[in-house]
Design brief:
The protein is α+β, with helices and mostly antiparallel strands. The chain contains five helices and twelve strands. The chain has helices spanning 20-30, 112-123, 127-130, 139-149, 154-164; strands spanning 8-18, 38-45, 48-55, 71-79, 94-95, 101-109, 167-175, 180-186, 191-194, 198-202, 215-216, 224-227. The strands form two sheets. Strands 3-2-4-1-10-9-11 form a seven-stranded antiparallel β-sheet, covered by helices on one side. Strand 7 and strand 8 (180-186) form a beta hairpin. Helix 2 (112-123) packs parallel to helix 4 (139-149) and helix 4 packs across helix 5. The radius of gyration is 16 Å and the shape is globular. Glutamic acid is lined by residues 4, 7, 79-84, 90, 105-108, 135-137. Residues 4, 7, 79-84, 90, 105-108, 135-137 line the site of glutamic acid (GLU).
């Protein structure tokens, strides 16, 4: 059995524009002790995500590689591959087909085959075209995007997608044009931090201890909306 408590997630949503990718970079470095094989960071800039993903260690990069990304929100992930090889396309964040929803995930989605079939049926798009990665994770952004097409808000679509997931997971999602993050855990570690300037979500406290010591430990299966 793979230890799904390894690897890391990070999310931040704040009141002011700042170097949000730098924030995620330092957080992922603070979570490096957990072990990982690849990493990724995303931040919404205007109507799209700026997405950086790579195989290897984020410590090979420096702060300056991220300082041009200015915004109010970012997510970051260090991956310990369980489904799909250690490849850039399998690194997180994973995106919806229209690239409007970005998701990071620690853990395993046990019913991802059924969910792939559900999405193929609902969208009418063949699996080989719809899915760009080999991960179990990729069903999550597609499910959220699908529920948005049925008329739901991002928040409601996230909750609806969450109800369909079986397994152990900690997930954080962003949507372009929205000013909040959504997060949920079942069986995998997740902590929430609150500072005067915004909210943090991470696998462990070291990811945001330099910014706040106000920490909450969410229970299982609660969809949380984080807005600064
Ligand atoms: N199961 C997911 C994957 O293989 C997440 C792995 C992790 O926890 O980092 O992409």
């Amino acid at each position: 059995m793979v230890d799904t408590s390894m690897c890391g997630i990070f999310g931040y949503v704040g009141k002011k524009e700042q170097e949000v990718a730098v924030k995620a970079y330092f957080a992922l470095r603070d979570l490096e002790y957990r072990g990982y094989d690849s990493w990724g960071i995303a931040a919404p800039i205007g109507k799209e995500f700026k997405l950086l993903r790579a195989v290897g260690k984020i410590s090979e990069k420096s702060e300056g590689d991220f300082s041009d990304i200015i915004g109010k929100m970012s997510i970051g992930h260090s991956r310990w591959a369980t489904h799909g090889g250690v490849l850039e396309k399998n690194a997180h964040p994973q995106l919806s087909r229209d690239k409007s929803v970005a998701v990071i995930h620690n853990g395993i989605i046990e019913n991802h085959h059924e969910l792939r079939n559900f999405l193929v049926e609902k969208t009418g798009i063949p699996e080989s075209e719809l899915f760009l990665s080999d991960t179990d994770t990729e069903v999550i952004p597609h499910l959220i995007a699908y529920f948005i097409t049925t008329g739901k808000t991002f928040e409601a679509a996230f909750s609806e997608a969450g109800k369909m997931l079986e397994g152990r997971y900690a997930i954080v999602a962003m949507r372009v044009g929205e000013s909040y993050l959504m997060a949920m855990r079942v069986g995998s570690p997740m902590v929430i931090g609150k500072s005067d300037e915004g909210y943090y979500v991470a696998s462990d406290v070291p990811a945001f201890i330099d910014h706040t010591r106000i920490v909450a430990y969410p229970g299982d299966a609660i969809a949380m909306k984080l807005r600064a």
